[in-house]
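Data card: per-record layout.
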Amino acid sequence: MKKRMFVGALAVSLAAVLAAGGLLASNMGFKLNYPLLQAGGGLSLSGTSSLALPDNRQSGLNTSKNLMDDITFANVQSVSKYLEATDGLQVYTGRKGTPGADFNLATGEGYLVKMATTTNYIVVGSHDPSFQHNLNAAGVGSLSGTNLFAFPYHGTPTTAKTLMDDIGFANVQSVSKYLKTTDGLQVYTGRKGTPGADFALVPGEAYYVKMSTTVNYTPSHY
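The structure for this 222-residue chain is written out next.
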């Protein structure tokens, strides 16, 4: 897939393989090979994956329709945005006769992408170390305090626990990972007597972060 130039990318060659799955990085720029799986084979129940886009997306990647086109439109059934006010989803399919309007992509938001065909999506972009992620507690504009958070590619947290610590442990109720095999969640609270093991963070995945206190979070980074 031919990639366009992206805003904010650093003019340096990509180097150093940092993680399995094809994350290449140079300073704050990167290129990621992120598999988006169709349903079947015991790997994905419905073909839905969470997706975290970079802080600085490539030029022209502004809406859910742009994202579907960039992945390859025919391979994507829908892109969904998490609605904090209702704990529901705004679903865009791009097909005539189906509900749901195209929506703008926002820095720091994660998305759910439902695939018709397995596609290795090449994500390019760069990290903005000054960007503050607004993680909302329950209140005005947020029903439960749950945010679908696009974990930044150059963040130093490597697990759900270290992410909670970086945000401020007392401010976070839980971090949850979307499970492709069941369309459920693996929930980690970090508190004694509650279920759910700590899990590793994966470049390209978005996570549900449930807050007790609203925090403007600037991730620690390398």
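Known properties of this structure: The two ends are 29 Å apart (CA to CA). The chain is about 5% helix and 35% strand.

See the next section for split statistics.
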